[in-house]
Every structure is written in C-alpha cells, then in structure tokens.
Amino acid sequence: MATRRSVLSGSLALAACAGAPAAPAAARPLKDMLPCPAGVCGMSGQFAEAGWRDLVVREFSQFTPEWEMKMEAILRPDGSLDFSRADVCADFAARHGLRLHGHALIWYSQGADQFAGLDKAAFGEAYDRYVLAVTSRYRGKVVSWDVVNEAVAEDGDGLRSHHWSQALGEIDHIRRAFDVAHTADPQAVLFLNDYNLENLPRKGATFLRLVETLLKAGTPVHGIGTQSHLDVEIAEGQIAGFFREAAEFGLQIHVSELDASLKSDRRLDLRPDGQRRAQQAARVTELTEAFMALPAAQRFAFTVWGARDPDSWLNRDARAGSGDEPLLFDASGAPTSMHAAVVGALPA
Predict the structure, then answer these.
(1) d(Cα 264, Cα 268) in Å, to the nearest integer?
(2) For the chain, what is the domain count?
(3) Residues 6 or more apart in contact with residue 90 via CB below 8 angstroms
(4) 64 in a domain, yes or no?
C-alpha cells in the first residue's frame, strides 16, 4: 500500500535528481488527512487557553473529556450526581463541532467509597441507576462510550478483582453495564477499553478472549478501545499482530489514548536520543499502518491523549518529571516528529 511517506520520499528523490529544491508539503490539519475522526482529550481548565483551544479546533474532529465524565467527577460522596463539569465538556464539543466520546462509565479505580456498605441488591440498583443516569443525560450528545475501562489484570493473567466484580460478578458486572448503557442510548457505540494490549501479548490475548466471551453472551459490545500508550521498545510486528487479531471480530476499533513516551522505566537509560526517537517513529508508524489497514467501517477514530507535549499526563506525573515528548504537537503547537510518523504512514 502506498503511503504518504513513500510518495514524499519518491518526490524528494526526483527533485534531487533534477537539481531542484524539494518544496515542503502543504500544511493541512490532521483531521483533513486522516480517513476517520481525529480525536484528542482535554479538560475544561484548558478551554479558556487560546493556544490550546485553537489547536484542538483546527486539528481535531473528536473530543474525549480526560477526567470530567468519569465517576470521580460526577458521583458525590452522598451518592448524588454532579454533572456541572461534564456539561461544560459537552457544551465545548457542541460549540466547536467536535464529536463527543464519553470516558468512562465504569472503572475499577473509582466508586468504592460511595458503594461501600451496600448489600448486593442495593449495590446492583445503585450501579444500574448510575450508568442509566449518565448515559441518558448525554443521549444524542455523546456518540460513544468507554463503558468498562481496564477490565483486564495488569499482567494479563485474567481479569481484575475489585468492588464491582466482587459485588456483581467478574463477567456479570461488565455485561450489566453494557446492557444498561444500551438501554439508555441504543444509538451510542459502546466500547470495552484497555491499555497495554499491544505492549503485552498476554494481556492483549486475555482482552480478546473477554471480548469473545461477552459477544457470545449477547452483550452489546460494539467496539474495541485500545489505549495505545506505546512502549517504543517492543518488538517489531507486535502492534500489527494485535490489530489483525482484534479485527477478526468485525467490531469498530478505537485507538483511544495514543502516546509514545521517549523515557524508559529502567533506572538508567543509556540509549542515545536519536535511537529513542527512531524507536518512537517506528512504533507509531506501525500502529498507524495497522489501524489504516482495517476495513474503513472498523476505523472508529484515531485519538491522541493530549494535544501538546506539556498537556500529557506523562508530564504531569511528579514521579516521572517533565520533558517527555509523547504527542503530535510541541508546546508551541508545532508538529513533532511523532506527527510526521503518523502522517507519513497514512494512505496516499
């Protein structure tokens, strides 16, 4: 398949042979180059910042609230619901013509305190009531939801154990959330979303077995969300292999939280900067090509987890420090080498 990179490199070679300088490619917004929605996440505190807002509106066509549609932002300690922050995000997306993706209804790391002490019946009723209330409120505004987020164990050895699974069942709490969300909004595209699916083959395999189990049980799972927080040191072909297997279900696939850190978890990272950047470009290219190789009907959206490098959660983590460059735009809003890797892998 011809890509923009191959076409561009061929044009540059011809220009060099003719002794003419190569003209730079015309700057086009990412949303105009991708053959699917171009997504980005953000938080309401960024909406008033002109640089961030202008970049998002120019480059992207889909918006994911990074935090303000999660349970932590909506469910109060007394069990009541506060939609004020989520509403601001929905209004921002509508005002700027951005498709809105909801993230996330059920996540293992939230809700334990508000549900503590409830017997099984009351727990189930409160669970259903929450999912129904949130999904119903944004019916017609949110086109898709991460219904259950990060269900698979960290190492891929089975599913996570937490307050939801302990009270309602390991598989049943997932089925229940999807069933209620589908009842509340039959038009919404419902995703099972997780991370390290490309990085850890064992986890990717467990995730796909879970998808198969849910579909066989009649659960209304419409899509696979792969967060794609890429480890740039994984083996070549690992990303493409996961996408090929995931595509076999025929579901829509969402690259839902893409970033690719240049930093390492190792205590002492001796890799030259150029090697790390080459690894980042290679893995991001492989991801983009694997996603673009999907049938058009399965390419739901291609979402990056932050507009600019300083916006990334990787640079907000005090343990990691700042200075990482995991996204498509730098602090000034200029395209990065990672942006070039994505664009270079797009079909010509």
Answers:
(1) 8
(2) 1
(3) 100, 138, 141, 142
(4) yes
| pLDDT tens column, 39-82 | 999 999 999 999 999 999 999 999 999 999 999 999 999 999 99
Q: Where are the beta strands (DSSP E) in 151-244?
A: 189-194, 223-226, 229-230
Per-residue pLDDT for 153 more than 60?
yes
Coil vs helix vs strand at 302: strand
Catalytic residue among 198, 257, 286, 289: 257
Token representation of residue 339: 């942006």
Q: Give the residue from 199, 180, 178, 185 showing the smallest Cα distance to 257.
A: 199
Q: Report the candidate in 43, 86, 127 with the shortest Cα–Cα distance to residue 313.
A: 43
225 beta partners: 193, 254
Cis peptide bond upstream of 112, omega within 30: no
In angstroms, the Cα distances linking 118 to 75, 163, 181, 290 are: 16, 11, 22, 45
Q: On the CB side of 110, how many CA atoms lie within 13 Å of its CA?
A: 22
125 tagged catalytic: no
Report residue 136: phi and psi, to 5°. -65, -40
* Full residue range of the structural domain in which residue 130 is found: 37-251+273-283
Q: What residue spans of 138-200 are helical by DSSP H?
A: 163-168, 172-184
Q: Per the residue annotation, which of 150, 286, 289, 325 is the catalytic one?
A: 150
User: Could you confirm whether 248 is annotated as catalytic?
Assistant: no
Whole-number mean pLDDT of the chain?
Answer: 91
Please state the pTM of the whole predicted model. Answer: 0.91
Coil, strand or helix at 208: helix
Q: What's the rounded Cα separation, in Å, for the pair 213 and 215?
A: 6
CATH number, residue 86: 3.20.20.80
User: Using the 8-state DSSP alphabet, how is residue 169 labeled?
Assistant: -
The yes-or-no verdict on residue 310 having pLDDT over 70 is yes
